[in-house]
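[audit] Reproducing an earlier prediction to check determinism. Same input, same settings, fresh worker. If the tokens differ from the archived copy the diff job will pick it up downstream; this log only records the rerun itself.
[audit] input (642 residues):
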Amino acid sequence: MLQPTDRRLLFDALSPPSGFKLDFAVGTTYTLDLFALLSAPVAFAFSDWQDREGRPNGDPLALLKAVREYADRICLFFQAGRIHVPQSYQPLLASVESSLVETLAPRGGNFHPKVWFLRFAGSEREVMYRFLCLSRNMTFDRAWDTMLCLEGPLTDRTNAFAVNHPLGRFVDALPKMAVRELSKSWKKRISQLAYEIRRVEFEKPEFVEELSFRPIGLDKLPAPAMDWEFPKPTKALVISPFVSGETLSKWAPKDSKIELVSRAEQLERVASAKLSACSKVWILDDAAEPEPSETEELEATTSDDSEGPAAAPPPLVGLHAKLYVLDHGRDASVFTGSANATKAAFESNVEFLTELRGKKSKLGVEAILGEATAESNTKPGAASLRDLLREFKPREGATEEDSPEDAFDRQVDKIAKSIASAKLSADCQKASEDGGYQVFLRAEKQTKVVFDSTVVVSVRPASRPRAPFVPLQVSKVNWAEFDSLAMLSLTSFFIFRVETDSPKRMAREFVLNIPLTNEPSGRREALLKDLLNDRERVMRFMMLLLADADASAFANMLGGTTGESERFEFSTLLNGPTLFESMMKCIERDPAKLKNVADMIHDLEKSSDGRELLPDDLDTIWRPIWNVAQQKLAKGAKRGEG
């Protein structure tokens, strides 16, 4: 059930099933790495073009293709103020600005769920949905996490599946928690998702007899009211990186046997009397790293690289999984998802758990830990979760008191939420004829944001890593001003810095996604020209747009995964069979691909220097082919295809 050798990347789970393409995706996360989000379109376009940690791996033009095709099909809700500060900035990040929705929890806690809803469309108009329930954020973290993947077809039934109603309710609630109103197109998609997800017949995982979906914190309730409580088990296993003594007291009644797995630094802060209620307390062994699976062993010994074998997968570091296993009679329940064993998780945060019910011999505590029995699914001698654990022994001098750093982190979190609530906008004004712009940060309406006198808050655009931070002046119309930003430096991502000298010198930074107003026209085209800066790259990109989704089909054309390639001869591509035949094949098989080429040509033709990048004779073969493709697309639209 939970074998340590069964490892799977989140980005693998985002890849479309065979014969399907992504229609749209709605996800939620607590923290966010912008480059991880930038990798999601790659997962939808080229499943084999990421490294072992999910980072884009290959020619930047492949990333450009993926982002242009899929960025506007992704909507990611996340906790306001929880974007990781990027170590560097790339203009391509502008493509995902509109994909992000800052969110605040209705009960004052954190927006903490980690789920994905993926709608895939097949060639015969069939629709497949995939639901991911994770403990993992949208980052490149290499911690131990859990992931539940459910998949099923959209049925044509009128009445919904009762078991799926909580999924629909969760989706319906997302726009209400957003800091800013969603666009009309995403409102429509969210509404469609909320209706359809109730009518998806998900296939149950092995050994699971019943499924139940448990969203938490979707609306305001008087504290300390809870949406629901776990049933009282006879035996339980709690896996949680964060724990609180109060929650453990609820979990560990005198007549129950509770085993707890957590982080040592967290357990140090729980009173020993609270921990004594648990029959066993475990932490991950510092050296915990299971033997590779058969697949990973094969990948590690086979490589196209003549230098030697492929790199082994990177080791996992730290515990981030959240899992609650309850034995009751001959049955058991496994709750997996985002909720830590803390008071905040069940009373003030927005969370999501999925319950899996089945026989104790398959889903119970001993089965999850990996106790090999005649009835369990754990093979004798196989690596198990229990093999990775060691008993927790508290160190001397441990204290339950918060450190100054913890208190400051909470203060910064409140500041981030208060600034997000002000609904700032970044107003762009042209400052000079040479293309420079001024940007003014302004609140949507007069709002009272007051910072503690012990802190100083400043801000800068994420696109200017070497620029000084500008003090934030919340009492003025313009909270901050920035001069002389080039077109490619305009960004909606702003880094805020909070500093204090009391009780000691500390500083924290966070990123907010602040929408641009009066955004200059041509920003999208400027980004395209920045990456397609000569005719050779334009031709390579055009061939990439026409190629099949499988990256291996055109890896040689792009020069492998290093971003290097042999020089193309325009005459060979334009006058020979390659480009012409690729376009003709698309007319018959997938004319929508030609729409991507048309969009690229249209963007480049908007300026004289963009037109210079297009081959002189391109129009000769392109216009007739595009005219035919438009007719086929129009006929398909009338029939309801695509």
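[audit] rerun output stored. Observation attached for the diff report: Residues 290-313, 549-577 have pLDDT under 50 and may be disordered.
[audit] end
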